[in-house]
Amino acid sequence: MPELPPLRDVVNRHGLLAQKSLGQNFLFDEQLLARIAAVPGPLKDADVLEVGPGPGGLTRALLRAGARVTAIEMDRRCLPALAELGEAFPGQLRVIEGDALKFDPAGLFGGPYHIAANLPYNVGTALFTGWLSGAAWPPRWQSLTLMFQHEVAERIVAQAGSDAYGRLAILAQWRASPRIAVKVHRSAFTPPPKVMSAIVHVTPAAMPAGVSARTLERVTEAAFGQRRKMLRQSLKGLPGALPALEALGIDPSRRAETLEIAEFVAIARAMSPANTGQT
Ligand code: SAM
Fold this sequence. Notes:
Bound molecules: S-adenosylmethionine
Number of helices: 12
Strand order of the largest sheet: 4-3-2-5-6-9-7
Helix content: 25-40%
Number of domains: 2
Structural class: alpha/beta
Radius of gyration: 21 Å
Largest sheet: 7 strands, mixed
Order of helices and strands: HEHEHEHEEHEHHEEEHHHHH
Distance between the termini: 58 Å
């Protein structure tokens, strides 16, 4: 295993002062980084897409685990530090300069790949939503290992009936299995953010048959758009939704947060074109 300088030295030598506008909160604790890199399971010779490597803390942990890493970073100040890391692990690191929000990773890998990232909140949530949406399932990625604000992580794994339960929980759970893998104290970051964080691990699960992802999205958008209202009110603008409730025996005076994910899936299935005779 190549000897690497401490991350703080790398940051100082390359003048990588954390920039708030880029959501930069760096991790320097190598034990913590090794724990995060272990979350997806064994990575020897596996492809990993890392978004936002920054000075390369998580990157070096992934490389040490034997992964082949493709890293997308939009701050070009980080590129020389990442190039040094690539020299220490020949043939294992490919760095792409760019904005991950404008980048389609589909063409980067010939086979399945894992995704790992410690990203700014807004970027992480947008990418997460994109990776979990779409008609095609299972996805090309094998797992997601992503840092979120702890409150967002709670919303991803939330169960029906809790305050945290909503569209994000349903998106993350109807055809995938998320869990909070590591809680990360704010003091682990430089500079420390205001709130606690957590690593969420997600693996794809079987997709329920006969359900359109787009229809389910429309149902949850309407239902949780007015989460305190009864379903008969929140879903009334959605063609086919109230007849679906009736056909399924779901009481229209219930509110969105009381419905299990399987009930939302059943509503979307009943409304899907193949089940209503529409095209
Ligand atoms: N992974 C490093 C770590 O754990 O120490 C850096 C984490 S820092 C929270 C987020 C990184 O994502 C920064 O290096 C930032 O420049 C990069 N970043 C922010 N938005 C991005 C985007 N849209 N595309 C690619 N990288 C981005």
